[in-house]
Amino acid sequence: MKKQQSLLKVSNCEKTDCRSKSSHIKKNIVLIGMPGSGKSTAGVILAKILGMHFLDTDILIQADQQRTLQDIVDQDGHMSLREIEEKVLLEINVENHVIATGGSAAYSHAAMTHLQKDGIIIFLHADLNALKRRIKNYETRGLAKRRGQSLEDLFHERLTLYRRYADITIENSFISQEQVCEQIVSAIVDGQQQQLSPRLRREHETIQAMVEIYCRKHHQSEKKEVCNDCAKLIKYARKKLEKCPFQENKSTCGKCTIHCYKKDMKEKVIAIMRYSGPKMIRKHPVMAFRHFLDSRKPAPQLKKSAKK
Ligand code: SF4
């Protein structure tokens, strides 16, 4: 596999400042997302821009198995493909690589945790209509899906997984691959989004789930999709979590002594909590229970020096 990885090096950086940009990125860049979201295409361009190596895990799987993804699914079933994929992902031990993963990588928590250790996870999010336009060979593409499972069903099933592991999400339904790469680079280099610790990541997932419930009812958004305003609120909440002075000691925002949200955002969040809170118990019981436990923690006090 090592030979395969080294063969995939992409060189010839076209931008004069790409080396300085890549010097800000100490680890790997891992692209996740649905088939048709442009991971492989954007990955090659990104590697070229940043002077990094490029790795496509679907190619690694095929080289490892000496057969195509579709052959694996046809011969051994989609669960077998997911198992092989997990094994291949867990064997990856590289630095300074852009890694384009298969669309089913996010089913493996072990694999995603492994990739997170040395990489920043970028979710390329194309909406369902864009995917329908782009994917012409859905049935023969070698996807790890159930027999007869529709693209729509697969999209909704995986969306939650991608969001769970994403450090950065790039909406790419209507922009070119070059623009996708520009957005990834600026998001990383400008430090617009930092990686969240497990506690804060959990908090962010809870906010996201509540906003989705609220948006579906009040803004008629599609299943698991949110409108632009709600997407902005999710992004805003994430920024606040990144800067939250309490970090791992954080209780829930409702018990906070600072309340760092602006007035209008705070009002929106309160309305969402009131509506979605009770519904979380039925829709996301584990998340709701963890949130309840977090809310039982005493609100931490900020040290005087940190207040200044
Ligand atoms: S409201 Fe308080 S607990 Fe919540 S993110 Fe802001 S500072 Fe942190």
Automatic annotation (TrEMBL):
Monomer. Pfam families: SKI (PF01202), YgbA_NO (PF11756). Pathway: Metabolic intermediate biosynthesis; chorismate biosynthesis; chorismate from D-erythrose 4-phosphate and phosphoenolpyruvate: step 5/7. It catalyses: shikimate + ATP = 3-phosphoshikimate + ADP + H(+). It is found in: Cytoplasm. GO terms for cellular component: cytosol. Keywords: Amino-acid biosynthesis, Aromatic amino acid biosynthesis, ATP-binding, Cytoplasm, Kinase, Magnesium, Metal-binding, Nucleotide-binding, Transferase. Mg(2+) binds at residue 40. GO terms for molecular function: ATP binding; magnesium ion binding; shikimate kinase activity. Its main location: cytoplasm. Catalyzes the specific phosphorylation of the 3-hydroxyl group of shikimic acid using ATP as a cosubstrate. GO terms for biological process: amino acid biosynthetic process; aromatic amino acid family biosynthetic process; chorismate biosynthetic process. The gene is aroK. It comes from the Bacteria. Its cofactor is Mg(2+). ATP binds at residues 36-41, 141. This is Shikimate kinase. Binds 1 Mg(2+) ion per subunit. Belongs to the shikimate kinase family. Its EC number is 2.7.1.71. Substrate binds at residues 58, 82, 103, 158.
